Amino acid sequence: MKPGKNVAWLLLLVVPLGFAGIWRLQHRIDTERASLSEERDEVLLRSPKLVKAMSLEYAPLLADVYWTRVVQYYGNKHLKGQANLELLWPLLDITTTLDPNLLIAYRFGAIFLSSPAPGGAGRPDLAVQLIERGIQANPEYWRLYEDLGFVYYFDMKDYQKASAAFLEGSKKPHALVWMKIMAAKVAAEGESFETSMFLWKDIYDSSADPSVKKNALMNMQLLRVKEDCRQLDALGDEYAKKYGKRPARMSDLAQAGLLRGIPRDPLGFAYVFGEGGKAELNLDSPLLEKQLMLERFKKYVP
Known about the structure:
By secondary structure, the protein is mostly helical. 71% of the residues lie in helices and 1% in strands. It is built from 13 helices and 2 strands; from the N terminus they run H-H-H-H-H-H-H-H-H-H-H-H-E-E-H. A two-stranded antiparallel ribbon has the order 1-2. Helix 4 (88-98) runs antiparallel to helix 5 (103-114) and helix 5 (103-114) runs parallel beside helix 7.
């Protein structure tokens, strides 16, 4: 075969492949440019007030359109595993300005914002801002206080504010009793003994449900145990400073003049010092089983 024909056949094979490669590359570039262009268009008008003024009586309808954009934007980013969600807040800002009563935008928007990257924007501060805006526009909707409490609890570890959010929400119409229970539980985790005890007692006094009353009583008893042990450990520290070792028995504290008598738990069983020198429940106390059960529960339920 002549050299000229060899070159011709080679060109016939290579050129189409080259064009195919160039087409695929160009197609990918065009797709990426279209995607970027679409994202820019989504927040072309950055001023929520301007968008609302232009939408006139169609503001609620346009809010639905923007909320759809929020979901699409978040979904596309999530599928691609992209952590950059910088347009999420502007889109939610416009959506909730157009329709302050679009509850789904506050509730799910807060989840999108507060979830850590790459699942979300990792901005619980903006989630709080969004929910507080929702509460201002819908003050009687207790579920928003629930969402606010969970953002403070899970994402910001601010137990005091979480407890306050649950408690405030529990006062709203149709709020479920567990809101007040959550306020009490979170207050206890935040080491607020007085607040938690007050809330559990209020739950116990106000509820007619026997199971709720039983649960409230158990939590009050275990709270008292926790506070008693904390105070006994503080006395143990005092004893160790004076004698160079921790007390082995409660009677050691009494003999040192740090206690009057032997302290007992809410069911009347004497507290003891464990192997580590820390105060704990007596092995014979029925509260020990409840305490261990609650601790195991907390390991599996954050």
